[in-house]
Amino acid sequence: MRAAVLVDPAPILDGRGKTYFARSLPEVAADHDGSWRRRFAARLFRPTDSVRSDETVAGMSAAPLTTAVAGWQAIVDFDAAAVLPHVHVPVLVISAGEPEAGLAERITDITLGRTVGAGHFVQLEVPDQVNAMIERFLTLLQDR
Fold first, then answer.
1. What is the arithmetic mean of pLDDT over 17-32?
2. How many domains does the chain have?
3. Residue 23 belongs to domain with CATH number
4. pLDDT at position 66, please?
5. Spatial distance between the Cα atoms of 123 and 34, rounded to a whole number of angstroms
6. Helices (DSSP H) in the chain: which residue ranges?
7. Rounded to an integer, what distance in angstroms lies between the CA atom of residue 106 and that of residue 79?
8. Domain containing 67: what range?
9. 85: which DSSP letter?
């Protein structure tokens, strides 16, 4: 692998975020009708997000429960402190807000990109910004 791109990733190092996912895992596991996941997903959008918010919320709440639980568990179990020292490729992290604290200190070759005017699902709401950042990142890699 020559590089990695993370688009508004789930909590990687953030203890508070990881704790939230761990504590809410039983609720996700019991969410047979998707109502808990629907409420969770809806909170990830800003009021101005409108491109595919309804479709995204519906999709997240309709995903098979085993898939939802496995994804949630993967976020809880991922040990970034053990993995990040072994990342030796350029990494682009694109986020809607401030990048997660500690990433820049743990990834030696990191580029941080921040979108404007979108919530968590930046690839849906502002794909022009996301695609431009990825294209620029890849262009710079070719020049190395």
1. 96
2. 1
3. 3.40.50.1820
4. 97
5. 23
6. 15-29, 35-42, 53-62, 65-77, 80-83, 103-106, 122-125, 127-142
7. 13
8. 4-142
9. G
